[in-house]
Amino acid sequence: MQGGGVLHIVATPIGNLGDLAPRVRDTLAGVDLIAAEDTRRCAQLLGHLGIAGVPAVSLHEHNESERVPEIIERLRTGGEVALVSDAGTPLVSDPGFLLVRAAREAGLTVRVVPGPCAAVAALAVSGLPPDRFVFEGFLPSRATARRRRLGELAVETRTLVLYESSHRIADTVADIAATLGGDRSVCLARELTKLHEESVTLTAAGLGEWLAADDNRHRGEFVLVVGGTETPPARYEVDLDRLLSVLLEHMPAKAVARTAAELIGVARNEAYERILKIKEGNHRGAEGTE
Ligand code: SAM
């Protein structure tokens, strides 16, 4: 049975204070404590809403695990706590997951004041199929890892939603063109709900040119919405032992296990154990023919 106080997950605007719903004010004014990604930004929001006297503690990616026990204790003893991030919906590429999970595990009530989320807003304006989509958040910042992840996503038939920062936007668009194909449809949604809001849907190659044409287009906050592939690759049944045996003719065992894991998603240790068995079998076979 649930008892104690309530944890309220409260979404806040992604750039336009006009998007503040009345429930945001009522909820923040009514809690005993606000767990905020950045207490200074939270203070600005409270000032805007005319709320005074509600204490806030920071809860960000570097302190969330230490903060959770004290907030859970507060909730257990009947406290009402609100969770806010700097912008948009907490937990969506933002802190809060550890707290929400702990609150649920403790049998506490979790409620939500839903509201803005850049991913959903961009999907809505993109003109790309919205019925099935995959939220990928931020791609890896390092080029090699980013391209590898995009390579894995190339076969995805659902629409992809990515977050990106201003200093990587051009590189990521170029990587999408190189990995998924220059003709893939991509929507770039920039500064949504703000003064310089714009969104364009072009081919990946065309979007690279569009960005290159004007430095101002690299400014602000970005969501990329990428159309899924229309030609998913045919799936083949793979005989694992046959695959491993063929690869073993060309590379050492560890490289074979790694390659098989990359190619067909088999666990590396499982592949390695099969390799040892294959080698053992080959060895016995060779002894038998002597
Ligand atoms: N929790 C937030 C949400 O619900 O959208 C996302 C937080 S994440 C740390 C910040 C990223 O969201 C930005 O780097 C950008 O990719 C995207 N974003 C946030 N506000 C945006 C806006 N107004 N326009 C476009 N993208 C935005």
What does this structure look like?
By secondary structure, the chain is of the alpha/beta class. The protein folds into three domains: 3-116, Cobalt-precorrin-4 Transmethylase, domain 1; 119-226, 2-Layer Sandwich (Methyltransferase, Cobalt-precorrin-4 Transmethylase, Domain 2), CATH 3.30.950.10; 240-288. It has eleven helices and ten strands. It has helices spanning 22-30, 39-49, 64-76, 97-105, 118-126, 143-153, 169-180, 204-212, 240-248, 253-264, 268-289; strands spanning 6-10, 33-36, 56-58, 81-84, 109-113, 133-138, 159-164, 185-190, 198-203, 222-226. A five-stranded parallel β-sheet has the order 3-2-4-1-5, with helices on both faces. α3 runs parallel beside α4 (97-105), α9 packs across α10 and α9 packs across α11 (268-289). It is flat and about 85 Å long. It starts with 5 loop residues before the first strand and ends with a helix. The model has no long low-confidence stretch (mean pLDDT 94). Bound molecules: S-adenosylmethionine.
